[in-house]
Specification:
alpha/beta, Rossmann fold, 6 domains, 31 strands, 23% strand
């Protein structure tokens, strides 16, 4: 018997091993197996296939051991892994590494998942009272602790007290506890405890839907059997979440599971309690912010006889082993956070979730107030169903959006702050009424550039071709590409000048300015710097919900579907920076970010106010934002995409070529592009130097493949594998790294 094993390594193909005779009766596809690899290494892999065909040309080694007595990966998951590897031009090992929690794929025999063990204590009833009194006669402190334990157990009608509970009793010390267990007055026992959230009963039924929500719900359920995928295009604060809750409830009643995908951990924080209130312990949460042990426990629970019926999570949750998936919800489907960037697999969670639903025989609902151009185009061509939810919940009006011309204000000397006078006035009026404010600036740090006022020198990262961002707390210059930090220079190293000025305000500087303008109000900041710690998202969101702060400053994570009841004013600063990226999607992203950020205002009480600060208010995109006109924006964007041959009319693959030597990188990229043009001709663009041409000491060149939507993915994959192998066969290009980004964002 032989097995083909997927190892969590970025290597092509699978690896064949022989199965010792004694292991053959209990060997199954989907099991974890420890195998030797290389000279001294052992890896944990997944058995993909069992067969009787030996490999020729080399000695087949035997597997070392079977880790489990049952499969931990289902046949359906293996099919999904194969599709991801095929479509996104990566190895099965890359997918395996991304899919499994770390403790399920240890790289050595010592590392493994360990269940959580709790220590409990009970009174030894085999010792009678006189004997116990004699044992404690000369140990009064031990006697006091024993009486505390007895009172605790009696009051709570429990037989056992946990170590954690015991440590909180008056008079506890480790030595006293050791004395009581040494005399066997207390008996210590160990129990395996789950790390998962303790079970809870539902607190409410799904709320009744409004007329417009009910209409949308009925349209979605009518379309799903035929279309399989439906886009719910609902305005911000239209009540999409409650529609999802009703759809989940219907799926539960059919005895099937639901996967509810969200683009950010921040959103799982806010939605979890809402869903827990309705579904109780049927709900599990899974994302990268959860510890590896807990992720492993969730995985094993999903394989058990009592799996979660609903999983809510970020993109990694689609890799879980579902038994009977009936519904997949992809909320905020337009979000770029659904696209994995580095490392491989560079998959898009929305598109992968649709494939997961297809393999499972499940239905998919995509939801957004600002759908991606590709998804909306799929509704226009009839591939997806479309349901429009055009009214805000409870008849709330859409926010009033106004533009502030910062260039004109500066010329007239009226712009004395990062914030325009109109925005400051609206903030003051809202705060006076006890309402809240959100300020959106899509750049973290204090300032984007530090510049010498005499010679215009700016500090740059020594490992990347990018200027450094000033972070005031702590006083450091930071590279946002490799995270290296540098001390602030006291003088300009180029000319010796002493005037180094910060240019371009980030969220840190904005927070500082807002504090000085509104010293009597609490200000919080939410960006990548303030949300690093465990549960940092939860703490900030909960504090703002509980109105412990009146003003929230942050980056794009603020625009992603968060729901606050008392936000009246939203300010969007430096809107032009959202639109001026050298990317065909920059206007789409800008429209989505501005519309989503605007949707945070006026959600429960009076009409919200949104102020967008721009130096070029005549750009046509602002007209669509001001009038909440998605169809108009979509049509304008689609016309431009068709004219220049961009998605959804083509499919893109970006090939990155990397090496520490710039000349070698340039040469390898040119060689590869020339070879690809033999077959793909004008479909090959480049190679070109990306906006940041060196990251982490690696020089970069990029080749873009622009393929017709009907061009065979199989043919492209075969070509790329062949040409990569050919490139690495040349000695000078042996250590050049190639990576592929299919459908780049």
């Amino acid at each position: 018997m032989y097995v083909d094993v997927i190892l969590p390594l970025p290597l092509p193909g699978m690896f064949t091993y022989a199965v010792p005779a004694e292991m053959q009766p209990c060997t199954m596809a989907g099991q974890r197996v420890v195998v030797p690899f290389g000279k001294r290494k052992h890896y944990t892999g997944i058995i993909a296939r069992i067969h009787d065909r030996p490999q020729t040309g080399f000695t087949v080694r035997e597997i070392h051991s079977l880790t489990d007595d049952h499969p931990v990966v289902t046949p359906q998951q293996l099919k999904l892994w194969e599709w991801i590897a095929f479509y996104y031009q990566c190895s099965l090992g890359d997918v395996c590494k991304a899919a499994l929690p770390s403790f399920m794929k240890p790289e050595d025999l010592a590392t493994r998942y360990l269940p959580k063990v709790e220590r409990f204590y009970r009174i030894n009833n085999e010792i009678d009272s006189p004997t116990r009194s004699a044992l404690l006669s000369r140990a009064k402190k031990q006697g006091t602790l024993f009486q505390s334990v007895r009172t605790f157990l009696c009051d709570r009608k429990q037989e056992m007290i946990s170590r954690q509970e015991l440590t909180s009793l008056p008079g506890y010390t480790p030595s006293l506890l050791k004395g009581l267990t040494g005399k066997e007055i207390l008996i210590e026992e160990s129990r395996q405890e789950s790390r998962l959230m303790k079970g809870s009963e539902p607190l409410r039924e799904p709320y009744p839907l409004s007329h417009y929500q009910q209409l949308a719900m009925e349209q979605v359920t009518a379309l799903l059997p035929g279309k399989k995928t439906v886009l719910l295009h609902g305005v911000t604060s239209g009540g999409k979440t409650e529609i999802y809750i009703h759809l989940i409830n219907r799926t539960l009643n059919e005895g099937k599971q639901t996967l509810y995908l969200l683009p950010e951990i921040a959103l799982t924080t806010q939605l979890t309690q809402r869903l827990h209130n309705v579904f109780g312990d049927k709900l599990g949460i899974y994302h990268s912010g959860i510890g590896d042990n807990e992720r492993t426990e969730i995985w094993l629970k999903m394989l058990s006889d009592h799996p979660y019926q609903i999983i809510i999570g970020a993109r990694s949750s689609l890799f879980l082993p579902f038994r009977d998936l009936g519904l997949v919800i992809v909320d905020e489907e337009h979000e770029t956070s659904y696209k994995q960037q580095d490392p491989a697999p560079r998959y898009h969670a929305r598109d992968t979730a649709i494939m997961l639903a297809h393999l499972s025989g499940a239905k998919t609902v995509l939801g957004s107030a600002t759908p991606s151009v590709e998804s909306y185009y799929n509704t226009v061509t009839g591939k997806y169903g479309l349901v429009n939810l055009t009214e805000r919940f409870n008849g709330m009006m859409m926010p009033s959006v106004q533009l502030e011309n910062t260039r004109e204000l500066r010329m007239r000397k009226k712009m004395k702050s990062i914030l325009s006078p109109a925005l400051i006035n609206e903030m003051a009026a809202a705060l006076e009424k006890g309402e809240q404010v959100i300020l959106f600036r899509n750049r973290r740090g204090f300032s984007s550039v530090l510049e010498c006022s005499e010679c215009a020198w700016t500090p740059r990262c020594t490992h990347c071709d990018v200027s450094l961002t000033l972070h005031k707390h702590p006083q450091r210059l930071v590279c946002h590409y490799c995270n290296r930090s540098y001390p602030l220079p006291e003088v300009c190293p180029s000319c010796g000048g002493e005037k180094l000025e910060p240019l371009g305000a980030g969220t840190e500087q904005l927070e500082e300015e807002v504090r000085s303008l509104f010293p009597d109000h609490n200000v919080m900041r939410m960006d990548a710097d303030t949300t690093r710690g465990k549960q940092a998202y939860e703490k900030i969101i909960r504090a703002f919900e509980e109105r412990k702060a009146e003003i929230l400053v942050g980056t794009q994570m603020l625009s992603k579907g968060l729901d606050f009841d008392h936000v009246r004013v939203v300010g969007i600063l430096s809107a032009d920076a959202l639109l001026n990226h050298p990317d065909f999607r920059s206007h789409e992203r800008g429209f989505q970010l501005m519309t989503q950020a605007a949707g945070r205002s006026g959600r429960k009480n009076e009409r919200g106010i949104v102020i967008i600060q721009t130096s070029d208010p005549q750009q046509s995109i602002f007209r669509h934002v001001v009038h909440h006109d998605y169809p108009g924006f979509f049509q304008a964007e689609l016309n431009e995409r068709k004219q220049f041959g961009y998605p959804p009319y083509t499919r893109l693959i970006r090939i990155s070529v990397k090496h520490r030597n710039e000349a070698l990188t340039e040469s390898a990229a040119s060689h590869l592009a020339t070879r690809l043009r033999v077959e793909l001709r004008e479909r090959v663009l480049g190679p070109g130097k990306p906006p940041v041409g060196r990251i982490k000491l690696q020089y970069l060149r990029e080749i873009l493949l622009k393929l017709e939507t009907g061009y065979s993915p199989q043919r492209v994959r075969h070509l790329l594998l062949r040409e990569e192998e050919s490139l690495h066969a040349r000695p000078e290009y042996r250590y050049v790294t190639l990576s592929y980004d299919v459908d780049p964002m």
